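Exam revision sheet. Question 4 asks you to relate a sequence to its structure. Input first:
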Amino acid sequence: MLGLRIYRTLFLLALGSVFCSRATAQVRMEHSAPWLGGDLSLQIEGAQPASYVRWLVAPTAGSFMLPFGELELERSTIQVLAGSTTDSNGSSAVSLSLDALTYAVEEELHIQTLVADATHPSGFVLGEAKHLRVLGPRFYVGCRGVNAASQAENGALLAISEDSGSTIFEIGHGRVLTGERGHGRAAPRFSANMDVGAVMISPSELLLFDPFFGTELARIPFATASRDIFVHPDTTGVWVLDQGSGPSRVNYVDFDTLTVTNQIFLQQPVSWYWCATEDGREAWIGEHYSFTGQTAALRFNLETGQVGESIPLGAVSNSRFTDLTCAAGQVFVGTATQTGMGNWFGYRSRIQFAAGGHVVTTDSAFTTEFSMFTAAPDARAVLFSNFMPEIPAGSLSAQRLAVPTVTHTFASPWVYLHVDALAVEGTGLWVLDSSNNEPPTATDPGRLYHLDLLTHIWRQHPTDWHFVGPVAMSLLKGPTHNTIGLITESEPAPISITPKLWMINTATGMERTVLVRSGVDSVSGIGRP
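Answer key, structure tokens:
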């Protein structure tokens, strides 16, 4: 009845006020992120003081011109969410439980206000509309596309619901992408209310998009940028590290203007490995002094945009970076030094802070380089993996955060360890190995293992997957369970030539698969905070 009453009011007002001119809504609306199971906060500004507000909702968008504005809700499905009164500044706010609205995950949610306004001939104005979707756990899959004659496809970004396994939207890149693959580094970042998402779809292009409906908002070109981007602490934009064709720079991309609004130029060449602290206030960048060959970690303030101190590392000259990660107020840096044709020694440096300064500890050279650093805060450790393709063999080890001198190498249940991807779940670790117990071939089944970092016990997840090409893995942390998202580039024919996203519930072991576009790039999970 409320919906019919609102519709009748709007219709009669339209008929009685046809002489009024079409006007742009001056009543602005802000909202929080509409996560299922949480509260949706709504606020309007720009209305007349002490005016009554009807908060309207509909499951479908529409477009119907009225004398006091454009109604952007489907008229036959309108309901009243709430009523309120503006304060002396013309503002009003309500908070609503999405559970109470009986909306399901990924359902559309269209909201607009009808505000009393004595200055308008009709006595009403329609405020700004917001077109949202009730958010639930998702995987974002980046696919680069392929040029294969039998399966030519352009790249795309896909949003896939963990709840249903369906594709929510797909944003095509319009071409096959080239350059450095993202793996776990190409994770999208979002504004606090989820109005804007940002992701580096290649080292030369930042994509800004609408996370609710998959609309492309903008594309920003760069020279040679890191696939890692970080959100400003107040979530107003993202920082992009660009090595550039000239001086390296850190660019600030504003979510409101969808443009680069600030650039900080760096004096020394930097790598595209960088990491942010847990609170998101600082970033650390791998820095290389080309004249001396000295490596360093450069501090960067993500709040102010100011470049801080450069801390030299203990690695010898002619080094390159392999990874960086931040954990528990410490910084871990991997570097490698070439010792011959195709031979590299690896180093692990650790920066610890105390009153009055910092301490840098660098391990002795290892005969292999470390290719992947992963922080496991609940286990109070940082994980390192490496691989020697000549043998082939590799290792997985952990360094305790509280005891810098303790490093443990885990004995694996297989012979040829090739760690393709890692995902941390509490004090446990999911490890994907594609090489199996034999010298790796295209027909070897891949294996997924869980390692308890406290007891050092391995558990295998049963699977007979076959992998060809790179893989990527992410852990989606949900309120009641966690889900692994695992994507491979392809499987060898005749099994399948279509890439798949595996979604594995870590509590029950249940699996589902979703077909995706060709050319694996990255997969990342996002759930309710």
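Marking note for examiners. Residues 1-24, 436-440 have pLDDT under 50 and may be disordered.
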